[in-house]
Amino acid sequence: MELSFTTSAFEGPLDLLLELIAKAKVDIKDIFVSEITEQYLAAIARMQQLDMDLASDFIAMAATLLRIKSRSLLPSYPTDDEGEEDEEQRLILQLEDYQRIKAVTGKLMDMADYAAEHYFYKLPEEFAYQADPLDLGDANLQTLFDAFRQLMEDAQREQEPAQVNVIRREPTSVRARIAHIREQLRRHGRITFAALFTAQDSKEEIIATFLALLEMIVSGEADVAQNDQFGNIDIFVNRREEAK
Amino acid sequence: MIIMTDDNTLFGAVEAILFVAGEPVSLEELAHALDITLLETTTLIERMRTQMEQQGRGLQLFCFEEKVQLRTHERYAAIIQQALRPLTMRTLGESVIQTLSIIAYRQPITRTEIEQYRGVSCDYSLRVLRERGLIEPKGRKDTIGNPVLFGTTEQFMRYFGIESLCDLPPLPNEPNEEIIV
After folding, report:
1. pTM to 2 decimals?
2. In terms of CA atoms, which chain A residue is nearest residue B174?
């Protein structure tokens, strides 16, 4: 006989036994003359195969069933009869009780559902205001993953300016620019301010050049002159320096 | 002392008392406050229930174990949920309800006795039920180890909406003990 059931649904050995009894359509009282014991053993063997952490209750029940069964196969001795009968009767009663309880459980659950439609005086935990549920639209695992990845990329980008802030050795030293200006002045005698810079100059280079110029003016090496407002600034070698 | 003669004044008084109390109020307390007999109170509450039902009121009287409490009518459950969004308690699982029904039908009962019925351990169920206030210790059994006896609570009545334990669905195939010869 093929048995099919969901193993996880069993509350315990009694539950499983009742299921088997219902499937076999036998009366609870007849369970020891039926093949329920064999079916029970087969069922728990299958549960073990499914890698279920088989509760000891199931195994204990299997032992009880086997003990009752084996006694029934042996010729009965009058002295043993009572204990055997007791164990059998106890199990049958237990099953009947459990079946009754199971039968009302569904009704009770329905009653609880109906009763939950009635509210009593305001209970703080019952009436906490909740925000409107978030509408996730048609979000799925992929969109969630994309959103997360975007977030991580953004976070990375935000960290980048921090790396720029690391003070690096200036690529163009003011000293090198001074040497450059000095070279230009020696070659041309007089240069315009604009000629010191090229379009390719980076911000750092412009600053370095400008600092270099200021440095040369302070030290008196170079001099500047502007003939009219916003006009060209000429840079030339300081005459006193030259005289030296 | 306010003399209340007509039903409407009495209804108003009961409603006011129950509103302020929030909790269930015993019929005896009501009778005392209204200065009427217990029997008069019982019939008054009955008339009041009928009238509230007929008028389609938002509130109704919930009576259990000789006590009365105000509760909302099931007709307005959806509108309450929409307006106030009450946190719905997680419903109890089948195994927990099973344990609870064993206690309800066989109380007072010890843990060991419950476990005999179900054939499995009931630690989890008992903990959940006590947390929800559906069961409580009702004393100790006079036997070895003096185990705690469990029974159902007022909250149990509210949870299932029953007015007494007699309102529980009868257990099938059980010999009726209440047959009057």
Report:
1. 0.57
2. A100
